[in-house]
Design brief:
The protein is an alpha+beta fold. It folds into two domains: about 110 residues, Immunoglobulins (Immunoglobulin-like), CATH 2.60.40.10; about 60 residues. The protein has two helices and twelve strands. It starts with a helix and ends with a helix. This is V-set and transmembrane domain-containing protein 5. One of its GO terms (cellular component) is plasma membrane.
């Protein structure tokens, strides 16, 4: 909506001179995709940037760093997170558990804070489900074809058996009729 876009583009300024812009407050992603949580901050002094992930499973600290100094990535996100000097982070290979709210806190060295939020929705890839259905359908069709062939063979065998039995009965009946006529 227009209101959320305007709010996202506003530069949220705190009295100490820290500002933060969140150009994309809502991100839709699919499983195994890489996503960029894009922000832009500015402040007068040295800033500390902290990202947290909040979902129904709880709150997890992702990364914290001081511009130009250290980067402290939590063990859960090691190898999956890339930090950028503008405050943005990139998450690699997202999964369903990565859906939720991402909070960024920018703290100026004098203690002034500003906050931003990005909502991330992660969806499963639908064609994998369709692939499973197609394979299951092909398997069921093959089993059905085998069962139909088996039933056809059983039916043919039954007809052959009935023909032999009927032929034997006719031969026996003919013999009995011949025997009766001879005895009389």
């Amino acid at each position: 909506s227009i209101t959320s876009t305007l709010i996202a583009l506003l530069c949220l300024s705190a009295p100490g001179g820290v500002s933060l812009v969140v150009p994309h407050p809502h991100i839709n992603a699919t499983v195994a995709q890489n996503i960029l949580l894009s922000v832009e901050y500015s402040c007068r002094g040295v800033a500390t940037i902290e990202w947290k992930h909040v979902s129904s499973w709880g709150t997890t600290k992702i990364v914290e760093w001081k511009s130009g100094n250290y980067v402290n990535v939590s063990t859960v996100y090691k190898g999956r997170v890339t930090t950028f000097e503008n405050g943005s982070i990139q998450l690699l290979n997202v999964g369903m558990g990565d859906a939720g709210y991402y909070f960024i806190t920018v703290t100026e060295e004098y203690g002034t804070n500003t906050y931003g939020t990005i909502i991330v929705n992660v969806y499963e890839i639908i064609y994998e489900d369709l692939h499973f259905v197609a394979v299951l359908f092909a398997f069921l069709a093959a089993v059905s074809a085998i069962l139909i062939c088996f039933m056809w063979l059983c039916n043919k065998s039954l007809h052959l058996f009935q023909k032999k039995t009927t032929h034997k009965l006719r031969a026996r009946t003919t013999e009995e009729i011949e025997l009766e006529t001879i005895e009389c």
